Amino acid sequence: MKGRIKRLQAALTSDRADARQKEPLICPLCERVIPDTQRDAHHLVPKSQGGVKTVWLHRICHRQVHALLNENELARHYCEVSRLREHPELAVFLRWVRNKPADFFERTRKSNRLQRL
């Protein structure tokens, strides 16, 4: 017989799994459905800067954010999804990736500006 806490954890886990199957996650950046295999949690304010709030992003979108912006920029200027969408280089990427299949993935390269830092 399972203990009370283990039973509660099992119930919560099954409820979350059921909810996940009912409502597909949508990437707030590219607005495509996120498959389980392409799901990354993004800290809006980096953990190194004290951030705790996360959002689910496509892996390719998440990598592109970190390829274009360093942690200080993310913490100071791009700590909201709406502000990330307004970034000029990220906006170009989002227009390009929006027409790709949900499980699309391609290698991401760090921007020249961040490579020089």
How would you describe what is shown here?
- The structure is a single chain.
- The chain is mainly alpha-helical.
- It has helices at residues 4-22, 59-68, 71-76, 81-86, 88-97, 112-116, and strands at 39-43, 54-58.
- 48% of the residues lie in helices and 9% in strands.
- The model has no long low-confidence stretch (mean pLDDT 84).
Task: Describe the structure concisely.
With 117 residues, the protein is mainly alpha-helical.
**DSSP helix count?**
6
Succession of helices and strands: HEEHHHHH
Question: Roughly how many Å apart are the termini?
Answer: 57 Å
Strand content: 5-15%
Biggest beta-sheet profile: 2 strands, antiparallel
* Count of strand segments: 2
Mean pLDDT: 84
Strand order, biggest sheet?
A: 1-2
Structural shape: globular
Q: What Rg do the Cα atoms give?
A: 17 Å
Helix content: 40-55%
Oligomer: single chain
State the secondary-structure class.
Answer: mainly alpha
Task: Return residue spans where pLDDT drops below 50 for at least 5 consecutive residues.
Answer: none
Write the layout of secondary structure elements.
Blueprint: H1 4-22, E1 39-43, E2 54-58, H2 59-68, H3 71-76, H4 81-86, H5 88-97, H6 112-116
Antiparallel strand pairs: 1-2
Helix pairs in contact: 2-5
Which short descriptors sum up this protein?
mainly alpha; two-stranded antiparallel sheet; 117 residues
